[in-house]
Specification:
alpha/beta, 14 helices, binds iron/sulfur cluster
Length: 354
């Protein structure tokens, strides 16, 4: 039996209305899985071809695990004085890119830590050499907003100038990674050394203003409250309006609780799928909603029935693997899971947003 409140919200969604944060909360609390799936699919199918989904093979190159931010949910970082630290040189970075190319991959994401010796010009030089070597054969997501912020601060370079420096080095994309939960209460509890939410959006605004592309991300399943999750979505939606729709996609994945200080229990696939649906319905101004094979493996493809229209086939990412993620290179099997859900997977161009 659908409660009258949920029933009227559902009718509004079916008629194309934008829902409020309070309505998103009511849906999350009272709507059943089947209704959320139906509503998210209705919204998705207004923007994308029904029964198809796009995907891309990609690798995340973790160029360094040195980080001074000390987020308690992180299983990847090492402090500069600890054993086991590394910083890849140019040839080692290229070897990782070549490994992706051997898999037929086209998209490379760079993700490391807040390394206290790497200045923005070091990144610009690395990226410039990478572009010279690989040309336009591959697309690169060069750093996350969070790493960009730290590097700019360390280099005493304002964000707008930093974005221009990277642009001149050939950078096209800085992803919205490192966002986790964009709520200052959450940030104070778990990663007080990383950034404030206002500062995060200041940096992302500068990135977009410089003509670079960027994306939205979210990680759920720590100890965040529903209010904190909703704050994250509300901030994103409002930011997206303020930049004229500059963020091309939203990717949500789940926290992995192994080998870190925070620990905990992994979020169920059901809760992940329900949140994907809420995100698709609420984020009316973000066209592409992506489901995370990296953290939920084949089960992530169920997300195509909960509003997602795109996914990655990852070949490596040490950050999540250190926290317990497992990556399969049996891509045929992963793609078969999409078909089982009723969606034909279509390989997309790396330069088109997913
Ligand atoms: S999540 Fe990122 S910023 Fe935080 S400790 Fe890990 S590597 Fe550093």
């Amino acid at each position: 039996m659908i409660s009258p409140t949920v029933g009227s919200i559902a009718d509004r969604i079916r008629s194309g209305a934008v829902i409020s944060t309070e309505e998103a909360e009511a849906l999350w609390t009272h709507a059943g899985d089947q209704l959320l799936s139906e509503l998210a699919t209705t919204v998705r199918d207004r923007l994308h071809q029904p029964q198809t989904a796009t995907y891309i093979k990609m690798a995340i190159v973790n160029y360094t695990n040195v980080c001074v931010a000390k987020c308690d949910y992180c299983s990847f970082y090492r402090l500069p004085h600890q054993s086991g630290t590394y910083l890849l040189d140019f040839d080692q970075v290229c070897a990782k890119i070549d490994a992706l190319v051997a898999f037929g991959g086209k998209l490379v994401g760079f993700n490391g830590g807040f390394h206290p010796q790497l200045r923005l010009h070091d990144y610009a030089e690395l990226f410039s050499r990478i572009h010279a070597r690989y040309g336009d054969d591959l697309a690169f997501y060069e750093m996350t907003v969070a790493e960009f912020m730290f590097s700019c601060k360390l280099s005493k370079i304002p964000y707008d100038e930093g974005a221009q420096i990277l642009r001149q080095a050939g950078t096209r994309w800085i992803t919205g990674g490192g966002a986790e939960i964009l709520d200052d209460g959450f940030r104070r509890r778990h990663s007080p050394g990383k950034y404030t939410v206002a500062d995060y959006f200041l940096a992302q605004r500068a990135i977009l203003a410089a003509g670079l592309g960027s994306t939205a991300t979210m990680v759920i399943g720590f100890d965040e409250t529903l209010a904190e999750r909703l704050n994250h979505l509300a901030s994103l939606r409002s930011f997206q309006d303020s930049v004229g729709g500059g963020l091309t996609s939203f990717l949500c994945w789940t926290y992995k609780p192994w080998n870190n200080v925070l620990g905990g229990t992994e979020l169920s696939i059901t809760e992940y799928l329900r949140w994907l649906a809420i995100s698709r319905i609420y984020l009316h101004n973000i066209r592409h909603i992506r489901t995370s094979v990296l953290t939920k493996n084949e089960a992530a493809l169920q997300g195509l029935r909960y509003g997602a229209n795109d996914f990655d086939l990852p070949t490596e990412d040490e950050v999540t693997q250190m926290a317990g993620a497992t990556i399969s290179h049996d891509f045929t099997q992963v793609l078969a899971a999409a078909r089982t859900e009723g969606y034909e997977p279509i390989l997309r161009d790396a330069f088109q947003p997913g």
